[in-house]
Write a structure and sequence with these properties.
alpha/beta; 7-stranded mixed beta sheet; 6-stranded mixed beta sheet; 16 helices; Ald_DH_N; oxidoreductase
Length: 458
């Protein structure tokens, strides 16, 4: 049984939306400013919640959640006038004389279901898009990050217009109750299995969806690179992003047999510089979110098929749910660790004879959310861009594309559908209404019956 009356809540939201207030420029600006204020005044509370949920290091919380959101909000405030403006487009002879424009309009009442790993960012970034586009919105944060969920509920309740912006906390029963309602858009972040449940619920009402999912994001390392920089950027994207619990973290690496020893040595030495000799004691590594995920990752490491393949790390601290940065070499393709998204601090390295052979490995799997390549070879870069399908590609870095708001962020195939960030967030929550304006002049009789042969010859 649901713990709240979803139908009554929806009725209230529909009323707020129908009043027209969320459509006004002023309302959108006031809500975006309220979000900025909430983040500035309560930064410590937010960082504390993230520490409680994930032992997320303060700098990661700030840079990877709060600062990104402030930028996102700031950009929406700066660009909102332009985004809301109708876009004039060309017309054809067939409608002469006429003019045409594309008018963005809000979709109505939308639902955002978010995940636990970046619980603040992944909750509020879509909400920024929904508000900027003029919708009423309900946010359902993840129950797996309860401290952040509760801070979100409290602060949004305090700062936002609660008639049109709501937070519903809870797990499967609450989400199920929400999904029974008819939404104008559902924006879901999480795994593909639940995405199918969300999609089935949305289909009943023909509700459009954005699905922000994950997958096995590969990183290819060529031999002609600045290895120290490459290693540091791989570490930053893997262990420096929530200890690998990030949708865009490199899931596995591929390099040549010849180059693997150099890559491994450099990763090892840089890891030691970042996290010390005993990384389980480091305050700069997030813990695994809960014992379910800790056990899931332990199972990947206990798989008989990878016995003897751990070449670095592997230490675990079950009491504190910590797993050290772990590197594995040449694990079999049919091992558990290569069959599912790792979403944690384990990095298998596969080796190939020729760096371009890595493309076949990537193409043999579902399309990932991101794919990375480190190289100085121009031809290889071009082939990578042409041949590898993924939500996004980055050359000579990892994860940083998500900090570029002029790029759409989203998956393809199993890694998701639709995209957001910057103007793409506004578009994700808008309908682009086609408007054709004609006058009474130039009314050609040829379009009207009777369709005489003379008209046909025109
Ligand atoms: P999660 O467990 O927090 O679940 C996501 C949301 O789904 C939660 O709000 C949860 O309450 C809801 N949910 C769970 N079971 C449900 C059910 N049976 N019915 C309805 N709702 C349900 O997060 P997760 O799925 O463990 O997240 C990790 C996955 O998300 C990974 O695959 C990761 O790659 C992906 N991810 C993607 C992005 C992205 O932006 N593309 C970002 C973060 C995570």
């Amino acid at each position: 049984m649901a713990f709240f009356d979803a139908a009554a809540m929806m009725k209230g939201l529909r009323g707020a939306y129908a009043s027209g207030k969320t459509r006004s420029y002023e309302w959108r600006v006031s809500q975006l400013k309220a979000l900025l204020k909430l983040m500035s005044f309560h930064e410590k509370e937010i960082v504390d919640a993230l520490r409680s949920d994930l032992s997320k290091p303060e700098l990661e919380s700030f840079l990877q959640e709060i600062a990104l959101l402030k930028e996102s909000c700031g950009l929406a405030l700066k660009e909102l006038h332009r985004w809301m403006a109708p876009e004039k487009v060309k017309t054809m002879m067939t409608t002469f004389p006429s003019s045409a424009e594309i008018v963005p309009e809000p979709l109505g009442v939308v639902l955002v279901i978010s995940a636990w790993n970046y619980p603040f960012l992944l909750s509020l970034d879509p909400v920024i898009g929904a508000i900027a586009a003029g919708n009423a919105v309900v946010l359902k944060p993840s129950e797996i990050s309860p401290a952040t969920s509760s801070v979100l509920a409290k602060l949004l309740g305090q700062y936002m217009d609660c008639s049109a912006v709501k937070v519903i906390e809870g797990a499967v029963p609450e989400t199920t109750a929400l999904l029974e309602q008819k939404w104008d858009k559902i924006f879901y972040t999480g795994n593909g299995k639940v995405a199918r449940i969300v999609s089935a619920a949305a289909a009943k009402h023909l509700t459009p969806l954005v699905l922000e999912l994950g997958g096995k994001s590969p990183v290819i390392v060529d031999s002609n690179v600045d290895l120290k920089v490459a290693a540091r950027r791989i570490i930053a994207g893997k262990w420096g992003c929530n200890n690998g619990q990030a949708c865009v973290s490199p899931d596995y690496a591929i390099t040549t047999k010849e180059f693997a020893p150099d890559l491994i040595d450099t990763l090892r030495s840089e890891l030691e510089k970042f996290y010390g000799k005993d990384p389980l004691k480091s305050n700069d590594l997030s813990r695994i979110v809960n014992s379910n995920h800790f056990n899931r990752l332990s199972k990947l490491l206990d798989d008989d098929k990878i016995s003897g393949k751990i070449i670095h790390g592997g230490q675990k601290d079950i009491a504190n749910l910590k797993i050290a940065p772990t590197i594995l070499l040449d694990v079999p393709e049919d091992s558990l660790i290569m069959e599912e998204e790792i979403f944690g601090p384990l990095l298998p390295i596969l080796t190939v004879n020729n760096v371009e052979d890595s493309f076949n490995i990537i193409k043999s799997k579902d399309k990932p959310l991101a794919a990375y390549l480190f190289t100085n070879n121009k031809k290889l870069k071009e082939n990578f861009i042409r041949n590898i399908s993924a939500g996004g590609l980055v050359i000579n870095d990892t994860t940083m594309h998500l900090a570029v708001p002029t790029l759409p962020f989203g998956g393809v195939g199993e890694s998701g559908m639709g995209a957001y960030h910057g103007k793409f967030s506004f578009d994700a929550f808008s309908h682009k209404k086609a408007v054709l304006l004609r006058s009474f002049a130039g009314d050609l009789s040829s379009r009207y019956p009777p369709y005489t042969p003379k008209k046909l010859n025109l």
